[in-house]
Amino acid sequence: MIQGIIWDIFATDIGLALAEAENQPDPREAVRIAFEAAMRTASREGITFPVGMTLETARSFLGPVSQLIRRGQQEGLIRADLDPEKDTLRLLFMLLSVLPTFNQGSEGWNRYLRLVMDSLLQTPTAPLPPAEAVVDPFRHGK
Q1: pLDDT, tens digit, for every residue of 81-116?
Q2: Is this structure's pTM higher than 0.90?
Q3: How far is CA 121 from CA 17, 64, 84, in A?
C-alpha cells in the first residue's frame, strides 16, 4: 500500500518534473529542476526519508538524474569528479536531511539546494575522495 502511494506521488509530481528536466538544454538547470521537485514534494508531504521506498523505486529518480549529471560532465558544465551512479542518491539524502529543520511545506530548503548545486558546478580546489558503492538504504534492518 505505501509503495503504491509513493508511486502515485512520483508519477504526479516528480515524474512530471523529470520529463521537464530532460527537455532542458542546460543540464545544470535540469539537475536543479529534478532535485527541486523531490524537495518540494517531500516538504509538502512531510516525507524526510521515503518510508516504504525501495532502491528500485528510488532508481526511477536516480537513473534520469544521473544521466543529466553525466550530460553536464560531458559538456564541461558539472565537475568531472562526481560519480553520477554513486553520488546522486547521497546528494538527494543530503538535501532531504534538512527537511526536519523546517515547518512542513516551508521552502527554506531552497538555500541548501543552491549550496549543493553550487558545489556541483564550482571548479574544485582539490579532487573529491573516491566514491564508495551505494549500500541499499531501504533494506530496513535486513
Answers
A1: 999 999 999 999 899 888 889 888 888 999 999 999
A2: no
A3: 21, 18, 14
Nearest CA among 98, 75, 90, 95 for reference residue 129? 90
List, as one string, the DSSP characters of 101-142: GS-TT--TTHHHHHHHHHHHHSPPSSPPPPPPPPP-TTSTT-
Domains and their CATH numbers in the chain: 2-121 (1.10.357.10)
Instruction: State the helix-helix crossing angle for 110-121 and 84-96, rounded to 10 degrees.
Output: 160
Residue with grid cell 558544465, as numbered in its chain? 77
3-state DSSP assignment of residue 46: coil
The 3-state DSSP composition of the chain as helix, strand, coil percent (nearest 5) reads 60, 0, 40
Q: Beta-carbon neighbour count of residue 60 at 10 Å?
A: 16
Judged on CB neighbours under 10 Å (0-12, 13-18, 19+), 109 is: buried
